[in-house]
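User: When convenient, might I ask for sequence and structure tokens for a protein?

AI:
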Amino acid sequence: MAYDPKLAERIRKSLKGVPFVEKKMFGGVGYLIHGNMACGVHRDHLMVRVDPAKHEQLLRKPHVLPFDLTGKPMKGWLLVKPAGCGTGKQLDTWVNTGVDFVLTLPSK
């Protein structure tokens, strides 16, 4: 499985009302707002873009891992294991974290 299509559908529902573009990337799918990726799906994990200043704090939360595709973790990007986004409330919290951060960035 390249990425979890059920998680992708749950993210689409969580983004309802937010103007996003869905784009296949990283062997998964990303959700972009004004050209900036807010979140996505990598295998069965939720990918979330976060404020780099909050990266270390959020990394200490349960079920959270650094996002690392190349052997060098990317600051400002996290992976959330399925157990950390299993409920609608958990998923919405993480998706909103990504959306809130990318809305502070200039459009691309």
The mean pLDDT is 96. The radius of gyration is 12 Å.
